[in-house]
Amino acid sequence: MRIIFSRKGFDSSSGGKPSPIRGGCPISLPIPASRNSRTTYGDLGLGELVHGVTKGKYGPKDLCHADPYFANGQCAFGQTGSAQGHLTKRGVGCGDVFLFFGLFTEEDSAERHHRIFGYMVVDDVIPLGSNPNSRDAPSFAPDHPHFIGARDRNNTIYIGPGTTCTAASPKLRLTQAEGPLGTWAVPEWLAEHGLTYHHKDWRWPAPGTLLSVARGQEFICDIGDDPVPRAWVDDILAEIGGDRPAMPADDEVIIAMLRQPRRDDPTEQRNDPFWEFGSFGITGCHGSNLLNPKKAHELEGKRIAFAQGGPGGIKLVYVTPPVSVKYHAGRVELNWSPADMPLTYESAPTLIDNMGYTDFPALLDEIGDVARTTPVGQFGSKFRSRRKPLPMPLGRQILAAFLSANVDGRECARQYTDCLPYLPPRIDVDRTKTYRTLSHLAGGFALPMRPTRRCRGRDQEGTVPHQRIWSPYRPTVAFIGTVAVGLAIIEMSEHVTLRYVDGTYVRETQLTARRGRYDYPHSWTTTRDLPSGRMRIVAYSPYGSVTWSKQWDETKPESLRGQVKPIVEAVEQAAVDLVPMIAEAERQAEIRHQEWLAQQERWRREEDRRSVEKSIAESTSELRQVIEQWADTMRIERFLAGVEQRAELLPQSDKLDVLERLALAREFLGSQDPLDFFKRWKTPDERYIPQYSGAGS
């Protein structure tokens, strides 16, 4: 195992100021960016803060290099150039830990010091190369800067669980208390194991003291299997994570597929797992594959990740603690504790959908070799009857995402139907009775006296839950296979003539049936649109890039009842017709995206060329000024030397007066050494480093 102390954020050279501590929380400010970024300080909610810290030099609209990028308990960190070469040479990879540190100022004393502000445990290392594709960026970091623009050939992204601290803990401070900035207080074992770029003995003047180098990004310590530094790492990660749940690194995770409710079965309840009681399998489900009694012992101590299928793809609704296996007559039950409610289907992380989207990029490698036509089909074939645990990096990633989702406030189910993609035909309204009955029939095993549940941001326990079936602001969408078709029912209006009679407007047709139109003195007519009482069904494409709709109108009230079958057939046919339209829209969108990327590249090259030309012109102009200053300085120096020589010929009293005035003149003029002017001159490459070969040539 390796620990990487990784320097990130504002400092005296990048940003010009230390990052601040506000309300006791260190806030690492990403360094400014002039290219290869689509993220502004305003996008990160740091606009006003960075404006205040830099006294207006940077603000909400300025681009920044948002790296490392933290979201939903995950971290994506990119590196390139010599720093990445150093990481590669030292073998940094899966299981290693990045400790991100930076320059901060104390909130009260404004003392500058180095401190750790975040971490990442590496789960995946992905070489991106010099021309990365932004579409390959992880879903939680879609605008990561290392997926944007041209880079070095060794451009690489590291992905894994990670987060930032919420408090300026003394344990995370590196600079010694009241000590110089570069004098660090470190554990004594660090000198024994060694730290790259810190090999010289004088950098370790005393046990637990390190004189850190002033520059450099990645400092690596290989601790191997030494339990002492590993315990220190665990302590630091716990200090950073606060009350975020720890992720056991060695727990194995197994996928359990949960089917969708059968709409054509009036007895269907789809009530297993019994989340409230920490139970799965009591109904006899999965008995021929995952919960086969002959092999169920293999599940002992494993974690089960429940994958719920639905129209929105396959979602990760729950990951159990390590389970125990209980054998009943002819069936197997898995139990876990504590028993918590799962996430709702809508809010759960996506394992895979039919567009190929996933919150877990490493999952694509697992299902990529399955011979099915859709990603969901590939996932189902891979995991429907699989008992083998996931690869450890992917298992840790899935477990970390679920634990983070719970902590970060994703919606937790209040009743078992909330984690389903839609309501089953029959709802189990007394799950305690159901579970007690099933448990008794299976062998009379004890039932917990009171089920437990956890809901964040909900009403207090004991309130009556409500069914969340539909509300007016939610669109109605029918799925024909994987194709969505929007449906709307509206009441049509009609243009009618109204007559003003006795202070109100009445339809003209109602009046003429009873009396003549001239029988109403002081009356007049107007026209308005009024509800007709007839309905219209509209089927439409819910895809923003595809324009399609079809409608059916009632010619008289309730006449649509007889059109239900042809409407259903038309909607099913529409789904078939929409497939090539959606594919073409996606193709056109990709063409537009590539054109946009090409235009951005042309703009970057043009800006690079202008910057190179500007640096050459400015360097040439400054050099000419240095030459002119040199000539002027030499002329002044010759004049002063001549005055000094002539003063030697004057009487003593006059000589002292002239020499005194000569000293005042030299003091007034300041340094006249021509080398001082020449040293301040900058070459074109010192002013601007070209980003493209041949720029400005």
State the helix count.
13
Helix content: 25-40%
Average the pLDDT over all residues and give the rounded result. 83
What form results from the Cα inertia axes? extended
Question: Rg, please?
Answer: 36 Å
C-alpha end-to-end distance: 48 Å
Structure write-up:
With 697 residues, the protein is of the alpha+beta class. It has helices spanning 47-53, 81-89, 189-193, 227-241, 362-367, 375-383, 392-407, 431-442, 508-512, 564-647, 652-669, 674-679, 684-687; strands spanning 2-7, 21-22, 25-26, 69-71, 74-79, 97-105, 112-121, 124-127, 156-164, 183-185, 209-211, 218-222, 253-258, 279-280, 303-308, 314-319, 324-328, 331-335, 350-352, 476-480, 483-501, 504-507, 525-540, 549-553. Helix 10 (564-647) packs antiparallel against helix 11 (652-669).
Structure summary:
By secondary structure, this protein is α+β, with helices and mostly antiparallel strands. Helix content is 28%, strand content 21%.
